[in-house]
């Protein structure tokens, strides 16, 4: 069985910062494999799941065991948020293209370090924003 892991330098990031981390692999065979490392956001909650891949880089896993550092420039948006019906989350995901195994590590992009809470946001407290 293979094992993949993503480790991030920290869990909370500001928009535009340089996210840094490390990908670690322990593959079941010594065969060379290509790992795909992705920076992405996704929604969870009520309704369909939406996903956006912001960046992707290949990682050459030449040996059965290894590690490689990485960095991604984070975008200004979308910000991590939590709402009454759904949330927007960010993660770095690594996947073995041969075996389809994957691992991901979640993090937050926000000006204050925590996901924006839409349910208590003062600009969204009134229904006037939603009237036609």
Q: Indicate the proportion of strand residues.
A: over 45%
Biggest beta sheet summary: 7 strands, mixed
Order of helices and strands: EEEEEEEEEE
CATH class: Mainly Beta
Q: How much helicity do the residues have? A: under 10%
Count of helical regions: 0
Q: Label the structural class.
A: mainly beta
* CATH fold type: Immunoglobulin-like
The total domain count is 1
Round the mean pLDDT to the nearest integer and report it.
Answer: 87
* Cα-to-Cα separation, first versus last residue: 56 Å
Extended strand count: 10
CATH architecture classification: Sandwich
Low-confidence stretches: 126-132
Radius of gyration: 18 Å
Describe the structure.
The protein starts with a strand and ends in a 15-residue tail after the last strand. It has strands at 3-8, 12-13, 18-26, 33-45, 51-61, 65-73, 81-82, 86-96, 102-109, 116-117. It is elongated and about 55 Å long. The chain has one domain: Immunoglobulin-like (Sandwich). The protein has no helices and ten strands. The chain has 132 residues and is mainly beta. The strands form two sheets. Strands 2, 4, 5, 7, 8, 9 and 10 form a seven-stranded mixed β-sheet that branches. A three-stranded antiparallel β-sheet has the order 1-3-6, with no helix packed on it.
